[in-house]
Amino acid sequence: MNSQRILTTSIICLLTICSLSLAVVQAQNSRAATAASYLERGNEWMAKGELDRAIADYDLAIAFDSHAAIAYNNRGIARQLKGDLEGALGDYDRAVELNPRHINAYLNRGTVRYQLEERAAAINDFSKAIELDPRNTKAWNNRGMARALQGDFVAAVSDFD
Question: With helix as H, strand as E and coil as C, how does 97-129 read?
Fold first, then answer.
């Protein structure tokens, strides 16, 4: 009788732990789904040119999933389009930090650095994008433009080839 009671108690404890674990996983999945919904709606706002609304939804996506590199990247695009280059740069920095293989974040950050006349830093970002995807023509073109503005015409022509 006593061993049966211990077994029953153990089973109840195990089921409770499993239920709690499942609740945590479901909560995490729910948060990720909510973040994805805000990200998607932000993309729709951006496509319509509603940048403030897009940024607000990207803020919410980030609040629900602070590791969503794409949300930081997309918010950076919206900020860049609004002329908030420093805010965009911070978002691209965070996107690259979260996902060091995020090619578009490197391209976008390079473009902002180019706009801020930080040519060497822009070239580094475009070079990283090329390293990750050697067939990315935008990265080659942007690096060539930055090199040309630095006066390195031989390297620029090489990038344009």
Answer: HHCCCCHHHHHHHHHHHHHCCCHHHHHHHHHHH
Low-confidence ranges of the chain (pLDDT < 70): 1-32
Instruction: Report the alpha-carbon distance of residue 35 to residue 71 in Å, rounded.
Output: 9
Show me where the domains of the chain are located. Answer: 28-99, 100-161
User: Are 132 and 101 contacting, i.e. CB atoms less than 8 angstroms apart?
Assistant: yes
Q: Please count the CA atoms within 13 angstroms of the CA of 94 that sit on its side-chain side.
A: 19
Domain 100-161 CATH class label: mainly alpha
Number of H helices, E strands in the chain: 8, 0
CA distance 28 to 161: 47
Would the pTM of this model clear 0.90, i.e. be above it?
no
Q: What is the pLDDT of residues 2-24, one digit of tens each?
A: 555 654 444 443 334 434 333 43
**pLDDT for res 16:** 40
